[in-house]
Write a structure and sequence with these properties.
Blueprint (H helix, E strand, L loop, with lengths): L3 E3 L4 E3 L1 E9 L5 H11 L13 H6 L6 E7 L9 E7 L7 H8 L4 E7 L6 H12 L5 E5 L8 H14 L4 H4 L3 E5 L4 E3 L13 H10 L6 H5 L3 E10 L3 E10 L1 E2 L4 E5 L5 E5 L2 E6 L2 E4 L13 E2 L3 E5 L9 E3 L17 E6 L15 H14 L4 E3 L5 E6 L2 H13 L4 E3 L3 E2 L2 E3 L2 E14 L3 H10 L3 E8 L2 E9 H4 L3 H7 L5 E11 L10 E5 L3 E2 L2 H7 L3 E3 L6 E2 L3 E6 L5 E3 L29 H7 L4 E5 L4 E5 L4 H8 L1
């Protein structure tokens, strides 16, 4: 068994490998990670890396998470290696999670769908990996899909590597074929296992190509560790998830915390946890069948408690004169909106936390763990929140409403930069996969939103369209895209940087249908109104004056009375007993609300409701505001 000796501590410890799993959204990262955990015996059937409720509901990874597996097993008689795995989000809005994780690991598994090939987020995460000098292992997943073409996908991945400036060594990447759902992998030179296959070929590839994170020289040096993620515990407070680069650390150690500019303060470590499977296990604790650790050693990933003011990118050192590790840079936010106290007529009915102080405290807590977010607390009556995209903000709002908060938000706006007298705005690359019959509508819609088509690729009856254009043009478009492609299209995007202002974009083609009365909406009134546009509410919904209950197809604002009942008489007439046929309403979610709202509206979010309302509730106040 191969071990390293730390003479200063008198300890023996195993070899460590650190990898991150990166991919475009829904290419199978979490499914593959779950299979690795099960097959190495550190997780039971049914346990998943996507432990957050929102992640399970939406089927996407939102937060990066750590796990560790041990391979081969101790019973094999071979040297056991600890493999730390970081599962990263695939959606572009959570790109800040990916960036800081890549700094803490030594290689990546790049998962690519054998049918879809490289997508925008594949490009984003691969570009970050190559810039850091990492050598990826390419895993071509979902080989069992009907239209899977692994050879074509290999060629596309190689093209992407070369396009992104990969070195000769990086472009000579190992490839593994995989079906993550079935938990099997094999080498391209071999045929797919007929039965009884597992992920051993992938694990062997990891041991062969990922460099060891631990070595005797680093272990004998003074401590240097850097947090790349933060956690929170009700009893321990803030937790720093760190990569230990040099030395070792154990509970009770006095340390120096150094900012990238060299500013230093002292701290004392109270507890240290390392990862075994999905569990965080306190050092010194024995877990059946797994090696015990008395400290966190060089190369390991550990969770450290006792440093209440620690932040991502700072350096934890045992020597006051130690050189700080390079800072971790995070891409800037692209959209901003205001969070306000809910002051609608229905305020306080459902929420437990409704005051500005409570909202401020919640946003301050969020900033401790969500580094892609920025909040300006300077205004008295609102908080300016900036994030990486609509989904990034929507997830924060969804978490807040589930915790019992009431809040209302303004329409999202893109963040403009001024540089050398020019106005710059964020641009995005958009990749659309759609049946050919819908391509005309997509090109027309995106063209009107200042998007330029860069490429078109046709494969059988499917077409892939690649566009570049301003982020402003995408705000409010995703729902229209679903309608234009009858739900058959796939659209994904990534921010590609700031470019000169693209000019005026007319986003909103519809107007608002505004309630002029308070009460319960009646089916008869809605039956008459549904001809004028799309309704957001159904019969029996409580409404108030100034609440937006739908949109008007002609693009004009219309004040209506959704509480108006049918006139009853004792005379019978033709048509008086006509059956009411109501179209199902377009129920607002947080994301839908952020898409359809106008500049003079607020989205009201409570634990049980999402409502759209005018900033000025009465017709008189709105007229005055327009003047």
């Amino acid at each position: 068994m191969v071990v390293f000796c730390n003479g200063r501590r008198g300890l023996l410890f195993m070899e460590i490998r650190n990898i991150a799993i990166i991919a475009h959204v829904d290419h199978g990262k979490t499914t593959l990670t779950d299979a690795l955990l099960r097959q190495t015996g550190v997780a039971e059937e049914g346990v998943s890396m996507d432990s957050n409720t929102l992640e399970r509901e939406r089927g996407i990874t939102i937060y990066s998470k750590n796990a560790a597996i041990f391979y081969p097993s101790a019973s094999s008689g071979k040297a056991v290696t600890k493999i730390n795995i970081v599962d990263t989000p695939g959606h572009a809005d959570f790109g800040s999670e990916v960036e800081r994780v890549l700094r803490s690991i030594d290689s990546v598994l790049l998962i690519v769908d054998a049918q879809e090939g490289p997508m925008p987020q594949t490009r984003f995460v691969l570009k970050k990996s190559l810039e850091l000098g990492l050598r990826p292992i390419v895993v071509i997943n979902k080989i069992d899909k009907p239209a899977a073409d692994p050879k074509r996908t290999e060629d596309q991945v190689l093209e992407l590597f070369l396009e992104l400036g990969a070195t000769d060594e990086q472009a000579d990447f190992p490839i593994v074929y995989c079906i993550g759902r079935e938990g099997i992998a094999w080498n391209p030179a071999e045929s797919r296992p007929a039965s009884g296959g597992d992920l051993t070929p992938l694990l062997d590839t990891i041991l062969k190509y990922v460099p060891p994170a631990s070595n005797a020289a680093a272990s004998g040096a003074a401590l240097r560790a850097q947090p790349f993620n933060l956690g929170y515990d009700n009893f321990l407070g803030r937790l720093a998830i760190c990569r230990v680069y040099e030395g070792s650390v154990r509970p009770g150690d006095q340390v120096f915390i150094k900012k990238p500019n060299g500013e230093t303060r002292m701290g004392k470590i109270s507890k240290i946890f390392t990862f075994k499977g999905l569990q965080k296990v306190e050092v010194g604790t024995n877990v059946a069948g797994l090696p015990a650790e008395a400290s966190a050693e060089a190369g390991d990933i550990a969770m450290i408690a006792g440093l209440p003011d620690i932040f991502i990118g700072e350096t934890i050192a045992s020597d006051q004169g130690a050189e700080p590790l390079p800072a971790i840079a995070i891409d800037e936010p692209t959209i901003t909106l205001n969070f306000l106290v809910n002051n609608s007529p229905f305020a306080g009915r459902e929420g437990k936390f409704v005051t500005s102080r409570q909202i401020r405290d919640r946003l301050e807590r969020e900033l401790e763990v969500n580094v892609g977010l920025k909040v300006d607390f300077s205004a008295n009556d609102s908080f300016k929140v900036s994030g990486r995209g609509e989904l990034h903000i929507a997830i924060l709002l969804e978490n807040m409403r589930r915790e019992g908060y009431e809040v209302q938000v303004s329409q999202p706006q893109v963040i403009f930069h001024e540089e050398k007298g020019k106005t710059l705005e964020p641009f995005e690359e958009v990749i659309v996969d759609t049946p050919q019959m819908y391509q005309g509508a997509i090109i027309e819609r995106l063209g009107a939103r200042k998007f330029a088509m860069m490429d078109m690729k046709v494969h059988e009856n499917q077409v892939r369209l690649i566009f570049e254009g301003p982020t402003r043009g995408l705000l409010g478009y995703r729902n229209q895209f679903v309608l234009d492609t009858r739900g058959e299209g796939i659209m994904s995007s990534r921010v590609i940087g700031f470019r000169p202002y693209a000019g005026e974009i007319k986003r909103r083609q519809v107007g608002s249908m505004i309630s002029m009365a308070s009460g319960k909406a009646l089916g008869f009134a809605l039956w008459n109104l549904q001809e004028r546009g799309l309704l957001y509410i159904g019969p029996g919904t409580e409404v108030y004056e100034g609440m937006v209950i739908g949109n008007t197809s002609k693009g004009e604002e219309m004040t209506v009375n959704p509480t108006k009942g049918k006139q009853l008489t004792n005379m019978r007439a033709s048509g008086s007993d006509e059956a009411i046929m109501l179209v199902p309403p377009y129920i607002l979610s947080i994301e839908r609300g952020l898409e359809v709202m106008a500049e003079d509206e607020y989205l009201e979010i409570t634990p049980e409701s999402v409502r759209l309302r005018k900033q000025f509730l009465t017709e008189l106040d709105r007229t005055r505001a327009r003047r």
